[in-house]
User: What shape does this take?
Amino acid sequence: MAKSSDNNRRKFIATTLQSVGLTALGGLLWSGYSDEVKASPLVLRPPGALPEEDFLKACIKCGLCAEACVNRDSNRNRDGSKRPGTLKMAKGGDHKMIGTPYFKPVDKRKPTWLERASGKYPDDVLQIDEGVPCYMCDDIPCVPVCPSGALDIASVTNEKGELDINMARMGLAVVHKESCIAFWGIQCDACYRACPLLDEAITLEYAKNERTGKHAFLLPVVHSDVCTGCGLCEKACVTEKPAIFVLPREYATGKAGDHYVKGWDKQDQNRVENAKAIHTRTERSEKEAADYLNMEMEY
Assistant: This one.
C-alpha cells in the first residue's frame, strides 16, 4: 500500500513539473513573438482598416477578407488562370501578428536550392517577386465580409452610399530621390503610368536639366491627399529595389501641429479652431527684452 502511494506521489510531482515547464516554455515563446511583432510596425493592411492599434483589437483573424480577395472574379491572369490574392494571413515568422491580414506590393527573394534543382526556376533567374499589390477592385470584396468592423465599411463609402475604393488610405507612396532614375535625368514614368488614379495621385513635374542644358526632368510627385497606398507604383518600379514604396501613413507623413496655420486657407483655419494656447513663464519672462538681448549668453 505504501509502495503504491509513493508511485502515485512521484507521478503527481512529475506531472506537475512537466506542466510548469511547458507553461513556462509557452510563455517564453509567446513573449518573444510579442516583442518581435511590436518591433515590426510597418505593415500594410486591407482597405478600410482601422488604425493599427484598434485594428489589432477588432480583428478576429477569421480570414474572410483574404478569402474574398483571392476568390474574386477579377483575380485572373490574361490567360484566364487564377493568380495569388493580394491579402495574406500572417503566420509565424512573418514578423506580424499571427492570423491578421496584410499585403506586400513587392516581396523579392532568391530561389532556393530545391526550387532550382526541381527546375521550377532556371539558373538565370536571380530573384523572384512574390509580392502582390492591391488592384483597387470597384466592389472592394474584402471589406463587406468583415464581421467585426476591423475593416470599416463607412470609411470607403461615399456620399451616395456607394463603395468607393478611391477613398481607401492603406498607406502612402514615398519616392527615394537618390535612387529614382527620373531624378538622374533618365526618362521614366513607370510609376506614373501604373497608378490607377492617373495624373491625380502621382503627377509628373517638369524641370530643366541644368547638367545638359537641353533636356528636361520628368519628376514623379506623390499627392498624399489622393494616394490610396495600393502599391501598384511600387510593383511597376524598374529599379532593382523599388525607388518608390508604400509605407503606413503614420510613418510616411509628418504633422505641422496647432502652432502653424495657413493664414490664406479658411479650411486650415478650421483645423486649429479648438487649439489651446500654452503659456510658459520663466524668470526671463519678467524682464524686458532690452534687459537681456544685448547681454552675454547666460548658462
Notes: The beta strands are 88-89, 101-102, 108-109, 128-129, 172-175, 202-208, 216-222, 244-247. The radius of gyration is 28 Å. The first strand starts at residue 88 and ends at 89.
